[in-house]
Amino acid sequence: MTNDILLFPSRKHSISFRVSSIFSSLSEEEDRAWSQRCHVRCLRAGETLVDHADESTDLFLLQSGEVRAVLRFGVGKEAIVGVFRRHEVMGELSAIDEMPRAASLTAVNDSVVTVIPSAVFHEIIALKPQVNKAVLQLLSLRMRQLNDRVSELSFLDTKHRLYNTLLRLSRIRMDGGGERVISPPIVHSELAEHIGSSRETVSREMARLMREALVERTSRAIILKDPGELSSRISRALQN
């Protein structure tokens, strides 16, 4: 099997900008006109969309799958700084300031991405004030998330950073009475990259959480049995 990049015209995938909250104010006609100037890229699990320091300036809209943003520090040292899911926008910083990429974007699983040329993006925000406002709100959200991560690294020890990451990556389980799930289950080495620790440390702490019946792991998901207790432990740690 080759690792060739797969490119398809956006119309073959019935792509719409308006699936993203950023572009929800576009009319159907505007959506159709601008999407025709974009293309779709299909990524296999583990494939890199853009690498750190790349000079590309495209904006990306994730149509399906999951993509993670990774910072690299020297040889072999990485930290996951974000995970993007269906209908989320990625790569907006380079699309705005035309500077090299601040992080790598890598597919967690098979994913489909709409590639929006920066010229198209700039045209949209120049002509559509609602989109411009939505982009500003997105940048504000990114800054708040960054502040949260800095606080986490500054004030929480390893195990509490793990609790926080489990909560952040999880979603409410629709049939679980307050439980939360991470599906598909994230491996311990990847959790370690999220919190700036080692796989061995994460494995020990996850085993302890399972003994306490706070976490359950299946072949399909990590289940947070008592998210409230994890949140309480984080709050107590911040107060000490």
Give short descriptive properties of this protein.
240 residues; alpha+beta; Jelly Rolls; Arc Repressor Mutant, subunit A; 2 domains; 5-stranded antiparallel β-sheet; 13 strands; WH-like_DNA-bd_sf; DNA-binding transcription factor activity; cNMP-bd_dom_sf; cNMP-bd_dom
Can you walk me through this structure?
The strands form three sheets. The protein has a five-stranded antiparallel β-sheet. A four-stranded antiparallel β-sheet has the order 3-8-5-6. Strands 10-11-13-12 form a four-stranded antiparallel β-sheet. By secondary structure, it is an alpha+beta fold. The longest helix is centred in the middle third of the chain and has 27 residues, at 129-155. The protein has helices spanning 28-35, 92-97, 118-127, 129-155, 158-169, 188-195, 199-211, 227-239, and strands at residues 6-9, 39-43, 48-50, 59-64, 67-72, 78-84, 89-90, 104-107, 111-116, 171-172, 180-182, 215-217, 222-224. The chain has two domains: 3-154, Jelly Rolls, CATH 2.60.120; 156-239, Arc Repressor Mutant, subunit A (Orthogonal Bundle), CATH 1.10.10. Helix 3 crosses helix 4, helix 5 packs across helix 6 and helix 5 packs across helix 8 (227-239). Mean pLDDT is 90; it is low at 1-5 and 7-11. The relative contact order is 0.12. It is 40% helix and 22% strand. A hairpin with a 5-residue loop joins strand 5 (67-72) and strand 6.
